[in-house]
Amino acid sequence: RRLSRMATVIQKWWRGYLRRKHFREIVERAYFIKKLNFYNQMAVRIQKMWRGYYVRKYIHNFYALKKYLKAVSVNNELVRSELQEYADMKENEDKMKDLEKKEKEKKHQARKMHYLLSTEQIPGIYNSPFRKSPDPMELLLRKSKPLSHRKQQVKSPFPYELYDWPTCKKPPAFVTELPLLPTDRQKPQGPFRDPAEVLWQRYKPLEPTLRVAESSNSPPAKAREEVRREEWRNPIHDNEFPPFSSYRKNDEKYEPLLRRSGKYGQEAYGTKHFREVYPKKWIADKDFETLFSSIVLFEKFGKTYSSTGQIV
Amino acid sequence: NSGVVCLLRPLLLDVVPSIRQTTALALGRLADYDMDLAEAVVRAGILPQLICALPEENRYYKKTAAFVLRAIAKHSPQLAQAIVQCGALEMLVICLEDFDPGVKEGASWAFGYIARHNPELSQAVVDAGAVPLLVLCIQEPEIALKRIAASTLSDISKHSPELAQTVVDAGAIAHLAQMIPNPDAKLKRQVLSALSQIAKHSVDLAELVVEAEIFPVVLTCLKDSDEYVKKNGATLIREIAKHTPELSQFIVNSGGVAAVIDCIGSCRGTVRLPGIMTLGYVAAHSENLSMAVIVSKGIPPLCVCLIEEHEDHIKAAAAWALGQIGRHTAEHARHVAVANVLPTLLDIYVDTRSSEDLKMKASILKALKNILQKCTYLPALEPLLHEAPPNILKHIIGQFSKVLPHDSKARRLFVTTGGLKKVQEIKAEPGSLLQEYINTINNCYPEEIVR
């Protein structure tokens, strides 16, 4: 027991000694950590202020945003005014077109109704005697040239024809009859015939022959019909137009087929026959040879023109 | 029906050309009138005979043959497929190469009707090599031909990005962009529709369309007197704006937003819908753009749309657009609330007549939630307290509970307008979010007032 107490005392002193040795380090370490924390906190404060400043100045710059929005609204105003101008211009154009169309209509009407113009004796519809001054329609009538029937020509169908075609609603336009000239026209200078003559000729009444004039239901026509049928039924010559006899001769000869007209029946297509050569039977041991020089002109016989692609 | 088709069939092979033509015309008109007749024409096997000797025929016959094909193809995809299968596409391409503009028109119209139905048929049309010829047709001087070629290109490119890319590769965008200032209204309709079908598929295509310098010119289309030109113009701008914030920024910078807003104000009905969606898309991308929309006075027309329009989908779109504008920050929500939009939205939501359409209700609900979650403008929230259904009420109370602890003037106002009384009347399960909010509000006030 005493020994253990001694051991405890020695250990106590030894531990204290070790601790006192390391105490300084521990204190220094703790001090260092405390200083570091303080510096970190101060650094965070500085960074916080810097980050706020930076973001406000550059990234979320409030004043720049305000300027931008102001610029956007100014631009919008500009765009709006320009578009408004454009719309007004278009409206004006439309109105002008409408007005012009109406004017044209009115003028056309006035020309058509030119007969409503008042004469010296009789006031017209638009020129009532109770009025102080004539109606504008009256003035228009006075100004306009009378519209004759001839002038009512159809507006050229050609530009619309192409667009009508895809829906294929209108049939192809056929050529209408030519317009006629008026009879009372002054005869124009030149080799033209008198219009009255032309009209007389054109409108000459039809004078059909007796045959045409007679209707097909009348008794003589029916009688003739009977005779015609009789004739059709009983012709003397059936073959009324036979060919000439000389043509017939060529028809009657029979020409056998080449294929079957070989001596021993059919020969296979493409067999080639060559003259056979027996050297033993030769009298002299030479082949045939020409005795005289060939005539150049006659050599060319049959060879000047290529026959079926063979080389000349 | 009474065997007419069988009677007409031998006439198609007649020697005299005008008989052939008239027969084809008759067949075309029959097929045009009714789908059953068109099917009868196809079943009688007339198509191969019609197109067998087409290249040697004269132009009237070609026109009529194109009319027949178009009349058959327009009824259904199966009939169009039948036409493709008998090899009519090559013949139509030959017609497209013809000199006569009427023949070209008929052929491109037939192509348009075929390509309209589904992507496979469009692909077949493209494979037949029609697209470069159509781009050539667009450059022709005849207006009707331009119209129909533009509408065919629009039908081809609407199905998929690859088809749109094919059309773009043939150089169509530049020519279409050149035709936008043209005075003819129907042509403008088709051109704008073609450009919007191209732009809708991807960012690159949209950028290509924008690079063709359509921008200030398209805005004049929004002021046109024709309704559908306005609608298609707004559609084009919408398709461009929806892809990225940069494109929306570009549109805002060129004053497009103002033009769209004016356009919405001047139209009625479905024509407004693309314009409303444009505003929604632009505002959705970022808060600066949303602020730009607000600054261009975008909110009042949207509010007017909500009130005036009868159609559900337009109301839903307007509500969605307002939600997108108001959801970014408190400032935006304040602008939206100041324009007196919230009571209108609530009215539409609560309205028993419109209770059938769930989609519209859902979109209005989402819009309301988005705006309310950022709204700190209490005078606008007050009237809503009295009428709101529970799911919206909790958001409103939440907002109050966020603002009231900090602002004494608002507290006083809240009590005097009877808001506190209303809050007391609300019953909430203990432990729910609503109860927490109510507790927070009650804690701002001394005990006597609360009782």
UniProtKB/TrEMBL annotation, chain A:
PROSITE patterns: IQ (PS50096). InterPro entries: IQ_motif_EF-hand-BS, P-loop_NTPase. SMART domains: IQ. SUPFAM superfamilies: P-loop containing nucleoside triphosphate hydrolases. Signal peptide: none annotated. This is SPT17 protein.
Automatic annotation (TrEMBL), chain B:
It comes from the Eukaryota. InterPro entries: ARM-like, ARM-type_fold, Armadillo. One of its GO terms (molecular function) is microtubule binding. It comes from Oreocharis arfaki. Coiled coil: none annotated. GO terms for biological process: epithelial cilium movement involved in extracellular fluid movement; filopodium assembly; neuron projection extension; sperm axoneme assembly. This is SPAG6 protein. GO terms for cellular component: acrosomal vesicle; axoneme; extracellular region; microtubule cytoskeleton; sperm principal piece.
